[in-house]
Design goal:
Blueprint: H1 2-14, H2 20-48, H3 54-64, H4 67-70, H5 72-95, H6 103-130
Helix pairs in contact: 2-5, 5-6
Length: 132
């Protein structure tokens, strides 16, 4: 229970402090990392189903090809892309400490790069999911 209280306090504080953008990026980086881990675990289980025959594997695959299940691709793509762009930002700041004075601007640049890639890609994912 204490962990939940600390997490809730951190989230509230992240939305109200001066370094809000950096803290939200930090939090999203952790959440997307967990999401990617969960996806990889489910992916391995899905592939593992081949060992039980074609029927269990094909039934899960058929479910994943449904349009509503395909919307999960958006969340997966969000997680992978945000984690990659933000991770690159953190690596650049770690290798060039003089750039730490531009931390807030680096979050804005990373967000812009993320959105420039994410928005057109989402349109392609949605077209693939809902158009014949």
């Amino acid at each position: 229970m204490r962990v939940l209280n600390n997490t809730a306090n951190f989230i509230l504080q992240a939305c109200t402090t001066q370094e809000r953008e950096e803290q939200i990026a930090w939090l999203l980086h952790r959440v997307t990392g967990i999401g990617i881990f969960i996806f990889l675990t489910l992916h391995i289980v899905h592939i593992w189903l081949i060992g039980f025959g074609a029927e269990p594997f094909n039934s899960v695959t058929a479910f994943l090809n449904q349009p509503l299940a395909r919307l999960l691709h958006i969340f997966l793509f969000f997680s992978v892309l945000f984690h990659a762009v933000n991770g690159t930002r953190v690596i650049i700041l770690d290798f060039w400490p003089a750039l730490w004075q531009y931390r807030r601007q680096s979050v804005n640049i990373a967000t812009t790069v993320f959105l420039l890639i994410f928005i057109p890609s989402i349109l392609l994912i949605l077209m693939d999911a809902f158009l014949p």
